[in-house]
């Protein structure tokens, strides 16, 4: 399990109403040095950093295979940032119960409303893990087909609107009879400043496949609306992203450009994160975010995954020219490969796949064949 | 991580068998008056009447309880219905120019209506256009072997019956033209055939009337014109006298003519003396063109029946003996667009006769309904005797249409359906059997001063008017004052106490009394806004109550009137006759009233501070309507530019300051544990539109001290549902998970006492999910998130008891739910496991869904038209459906060899077709298929019901505010914080 912060857009909320945004390149957002924390003198206490998105990449089979298409999506698009929001909690007594309350979800009912015991680590400018609140995440990346993306939006406790619209549309499915047009539900618009837009995980024209695990096939737009509203406190949508469906040369080149810069950013981050106690804290913190979701919260796990991540980044960055082709080819696969999630589930969840490159490569080849066939 | 549990359940064969014994969906019978009737037919031999509708249904009525329904495959209006007398066969002409033959068939000792044959008149290629072969009239010969069809083109065609084969004997207009004198021809066509009548004495001769006015007596055997009657007025209809010597023609100018057959001349304009002449219409257009009239003339007597809706058709019931000179009609049956009127022609004064069925439910628009099952005989008799005082002719002994035999067993339980109407009346219907009979009508308008009081005198002056009009019928769609409309009804069947609440915030407590009374009504006003400032009511005024005493007939007599302020429509009521308490809610709050001491106990405002819409009454919605109209015009303009119209939905969670969040949706009294687990006592529960639930502990004095001590209410708990969906229903379950019995049931030994030992629980049904909370802690026990799973929203819920078909001993309590998609889900209680799902109402039929009422035994009603209730059954055991037999004699039976396997019990075109077949026929594979189709909830892994409360995925926990138990530190903090946020302490944040 790893939390990746790449091409981070840092949002620092100094007070409740003052929000500033800065874009960081190779620097770590968690670096407490003055240029990146100009508000430090004004802060009576440490600013609370809140990661907005985290990526659960545990046991991700594609990961061992090489370039991850999903990740690349987020490098590539100019707007697809994984932002981190940092906001300060001036003083812990002010502290709203719910943002923190969403974290220790093991506590139920009224217990959740209580303030969690404060770990007082003085001397650090980074605030405490409990100040962090997860806003969105990619989940189940290991069991979903690579054309699909399962995104979790945490409306809980925020005042931000979910901020997206859905519409009816026509989806193309590949069946044994050939290509078939079926009605589908798509994201039609993202509201500026809304939760959906700020996470960058959902995009216009993404097809909605599931809402909180329930297939929306055959359901009307109103039904899907009601399902989403009913789940709005903890909305999990499985989408078929629009930019994973299309594969154009234009996009591929854009991807490579994005990759290299993002890769350097990523490596910088991971280098920095090792020595800096602040970022360590942040890692822990992000880890604790996902603790509620994932049972294992092994620090070593995190480090190992992080190393993998690093090496992957590096190779990608080194062979930027040569790899573009292959990554482009790889990216072409998912577009045409639209298995129902259940059928691909069994093949992808096998743990043996994780470490064996031979197997994955073979599966890649077979996929490629499928892809070629279908793209005709 | 959110766990998607793909748990399969419901595959236990034992449980499946139990479910089959408990649940079965059937649409059983339609109560009320068929919507948009278009044709009428009568069979004097079988004494059956048939009504055809615009939606293509034919409904057969005989003796009360004898009802049959058929639905044409195409929803085309039925324009004519003819019986083949005595044969149990019906010929229907549809608007699409098809003729259909229906037969009454016997199956399993009961009769059904089945379509056996159909026919379309072929056009003559090249000669006649398609409109020329359009059938205008049908003549069925008395011998029932020949059918003559008159067409638009003026031709007459003959069909053999019952095979519906076209005979090569057609008579075309040119043949008739040859025998016409030149001066009559003047080069014009004769126009469509308007009437065909068989000679009453000589069956070989028929009278053919053409639109232009020509009437021809045609001999079928010799195929020649026997006589010509050169009428000059546009013809409407023809009718023979029994002798065959004279016939009468009616004309478009409002006149009628009597012709003598022998001299082929017009003999007289004057009505012949002796017989009764009946005609509809014929009124002077300028003055009475808008009236719907039927005139009865006999000698010097003349009455013009003045109806409130259009006359579709009429027939008389008369002596069938052919020797009589005249028909000697005994009854006149008039089918109007909105009701059926029967006039007794043998009783002087021609009074009307009440019908035992086809009740005009919609005589004033239905605004609400309530069903009471298992009515005690005592109250039943009192209601009936009160009704008989209102309408002395309430026995249906001389009902003339009495064919067939009702085989349905007399229902063991008496059931009442109460309908509230726009004019402030509450009508009591006998819903025990197939025919819904009116029992009693209660009017609440007489306790208020309304404009309509002064209008009575004006109608008196119309005595001298000609023609002598007489108002007939009860269909009256115009309400005198919309504020009188009834919104909610609650009846205590043991004590005979009735609670009725209306549009102007009026809440009336009525008590059944067998004596006439003249008394004052106690009036109290309850301010539901409390001290909330900054609100001004922009809606209607409250209804001014009459001062002084009012005379009330025996029946339900008002004793107390509570008027809510602001006078918004009442949205929820509940009555506890044992505690002498009523509770009522509006869009502003709810109140509790002790009607014994006539004192208000509690008023609670539920308004959200941001809610401005709640202050506008229904009348001032014009503003927002204007705004929305403007917006929609803008949208139209925009969409024209883009050229595409796309449905788009915004995804946002419900926010606290949605408009009308304070509307009180449900109220409930219960004797349960609110303070602690050892002491139970009276409680009041209220749920609002924004997902808030308030629970009050009540201090109700014992029976003897009612007059001395006041009732007190103490706020016990506040629950804010996390998802903020409107609370549709609240019910308290006892220690065994059964719903608590009604008031008096236990103290009068009518029901098993509830389990007060084990812990109680409260079932809260919101628009999105059902949850059972343990009491007194209000901790969630079980839940089912319907909207999250199915994408549908709860519209109506009820707790019903389902008894197994195989054993009367075995029964289960279930939660029945109708959704906005029109389907019905049944859940077990308290485990909230989905049991079955059925399609019931079309999802577009919003008024049908809104009108649905469930009974306590697993049946239900919903409106399929403003005038008709569809009755359906979810129980495999409790089914109220027509079970009747009509004996018929017919020569060639067509139905035996025809493939008429499907019997559609539905007459109205508004139904969803059920995939299901009768449970008796479905076996084995079929049964599996059925369960798979009807309960996708259980089959589909995606809709797994995660019943155990998942601690990790559980984010929709509710906040429970406890006022009675000691509050611990965290909750103190919490409350402080709430106050710091500038919110009133009563409203919770999440």
- Per CATH, the superfamily of the domain at 34-123 and 130-358 in chain B is YVTN repeat-like/Quinoprotein amine dehydrogenase
- Quaternary state, please? heterodimer
The structural class of chain A is alpha+beta
Distance between the termini of chain B: 22 Å
* Global mean pLDDT of chain B: 82
Largest sheet of chain A: 8 strands, mixed
Supply database-style keywords.
heterodimer; A: 376 residues; alpha+beta; eight-stranded mixed β-sheet; 12 strands; 39% helix; disordered N terminus; B: 990 residues; mainly beta; Methylamine Dehydrogenase, Chain H; five-stranded mixed β-sheet; five-stranded antiparallel β-sheet; 11 helices; 63 strands; 10% helix; disordered C terminus; phosphoprotein (chain B); cytoplasm (chain B); Lethal2_giant (chain B); Lgl_C_dom (chain B)
Explain what the structure shows.
The complex is a heterodimer of chains A (376) and B (990). Chain A is of the alpha+beta class and 376 residues long. Chain A has helices at 61-65, 69-76, 97-101, 195-199, 221-230, 242-245, 249-273, 277-291, 299-318, 320-336, 341-349, 352-355, 357-375, and strands spanning 9-13, 19-23, 47-51, 53-55, 84-88, 136-139, 149-153, 164-175, 178-190, 207-211, 214-215, 235-240. In chain A, strands 4, 6, 7, 8, 9, 10, 11 and 12 form an 8-stranded mixed β-sheet that branches. Residues 1-68, 77-121 and 247-376 of chain A have low confidence and may be disordered. Chain B is mostly beta strands and 990 residues long. A 5-stranded mixed β-sheet of chain B has the order 35-36-37-41-39. The longest helix of chain B has 21 residues, at 622-642. Mean pLDDT of chain B is 82; it is low at 1-7, 455-462, 619-623, 897-957 and 966-990. At the A-B interface, strand 8, strand 11 and helix 5 of A face strand 46, helix 7 and helix 11 of B. Strand 8 of chain A pairs antiparallel with strand 46 of chain B, so a sheet runs across the interface.
What's a quick, concise take on this entry?
The complex is a heterodimer of chains A (376) and B (990). With 376 residues, chain A is an alpha+beta fold.
